[in-house]
Amino acid sequence: MTSPRTIGIGLLGLGTVGQGVWKHLSEKQNDLASRLGVNLDLRRAAVRNLRKARSVKIPKNKITLDPYEVIDDPKVHVVCELIGGTTKARELTLRALRLGKVVVSANKALLCEHGPEIFAAVRKHGGQFLFEASVAGGVPIIKALREGLVANRFDLIVGILNGTCNHILTRMGEDGLSFADALKEAQALGYAEANPTLDVEGIDAFHKASILAWLAHGKWAPRQRALVEGIRNIGPADIDFARRFGLALKHLAVIRRDFNAGWMTVGVYPALVPNREILARVSGVNNGITLRGDVVGATTLAGRGAGGDATASAVIGDIVDAIAALTSGARQGLSSDDLASRERLGKSVRMGDLDEIISPFYLRLSLLDKAGVSEGIYRIFSKYKVSIARVIQYEHPNQGRGTVTLSTYPVSEAKMAKVLKGLKSLKTVLEEPVVLRIFSPET
Ligand code: HSE
Q1: Where are the alpha helices (H) located in 48-145, listed in sequence order?
Q2: What mean pLDDT is reported for the chain?
């Protein structure tokens, strides 16, 4: 009997995710090896700082400052890129792919910004690029889209894709925490990006949404053609409005596709989601994605979307898939045929006009507290024939101003922009209005 093949695994980066991968892979090593019929060799991890305190114990001879000691090691077959960022990560990923290796990545920014170049390297050199961990942490959404739901075309994909935002909104809404305290907590729990601006300004969610849009529709959405908004402006009055009217405040990614007209739109923004939607009940660090397929109908996947353990679960899933492919000769990841068919598909898709998207809106206005002010506000809505559905007014005694929150019936983005312009031109409107969309799967 021949002895089983040994597969070497190397890590680039030992941050929150890297440590999670090392820990769980070491613990499950024997089990996974016997399941796969191979020996697993967790060979080495490259780090930036040898002295940094880490929660996992790793022998000194397995840690290096030189990432090329991992990538160029002929006994490393699977390279896990867990350093984040797009400069060094791109260089290292391409180097490993040029050597025909498997790269397992959690790096959504890299994939979103350099996807075509990465997949060109995969096609040219015969390696693999697996990226389950790049979207929705431990939720196997990439595999579901590519495999389990392959029979479908999706006219709507809507998801909560950023665990940090969902944690912040949940803690503000349910426990009354301030934005700053909730963000600090998300950072301490290892959910936030090294630069949390990426989370709270919606950029991380946009990266993930564009990966899903590309997988589903074959087209990379340019950022300037997408709607990208974060959660910095959310305040107690918005949370109060949501609570009173059976809505939940969520940071959503919405990918719409019209197969007849040939367009797709990508938007990430804070939205009010009716409590009857499953996503309204996805709270804390959890992510959730509802996919509306023409065959399966609406299917929702949910689970922990950030943090070392959840992300490690996705990375290890990819490592196992990669090893199964390496040992059986079958292809995992996106094959050349798969990539070519996505490219063809993408050619028939154009970015849709965001102005035409219709939804009910929510507005928060800070107004001068004076007789007749409301009339001026209503006149603007009436001028553009935008119908108001609900209103709440709050007084702020002795401050000379009040707050009004209101919702509208469904209206186009273009029309709402006109209403906003009109409102902002009023001297009685004291601050930049806060505008949120109210999610409705029907519009
Ligand atoms: N910062 C990301 C989040 C990590 O909060 O969702 C997972 O990609």
Answers
A1: 67-71, 88-98, 108-125, 141-143
A2: 95
Look up the pTM and report it: 0.96
My answer on whether 153 and 243 are in the same domain is yes
For ligand 1, whether the C-beta of 190 sits within 6 Å is no
Which atom of ligand 1 has the smallest separation from the CA of 208?
Answer: 8
pLDDT at 336: 79
Give me the number of domains the chain comprises. Answer: 3
Range of the domain at 279: 141-305
Mean pLDDT of 231-238: 96
Residues 161, 165: Cα–Cα separation, whole Å? 9
Q: What is the pLDDT of residue 421?
A: 98
Here the CATH number for the domain that contains residue 119 is: 3.40.50.720
Ligand 1 lined by 193 (C-beta under 6 Å): yes
Ligand 1 atom closest to residue 162's alpha carbon, by position in its atom list:
6
Residues 156 and 258 in one domain: yes
Lowest mean pLDDT: which of 37-41, 51-55, 383-387, 436-440?
Answer: 51-55
Q: What is the mean pLDDT of residues 294-323?
A: 97
Q: Do 269 and 370 share a structural domain?
A: no
In a domain, 182, yes or no: yes
Report whether pLDDT(66) > 60.
Answer: yes
Is the pLDDT at 396 greater than 90? The verdict is no
From the CA of 311, give the closest atom in ligand 1. Answer: 7
Contacts of 30 by beta carbon, 8 Å cutoff, 6+ apart: none
Ligand 1 contact, 163 CB (< 6 A): yes
Q: Which of 101, 208, 219, 250 is catalytic?
A: 208
Which sign does the torsion angle of CA 238, 244, 249, 253 carry?
Answer: negative
The alpha-helical segments, DSSP class H, found in 329-369 are 336-347
Residue to substitute in 204, 207, 211 for testing ligand 1 pocket (most ligand atoms within 8 angstroms of CB): 204
Residue 405 lies in a domain: yes
| One domain, residues 264 and 293 | yes
Question: Do 164 and 296 fall into the same domain?
Answer: yes
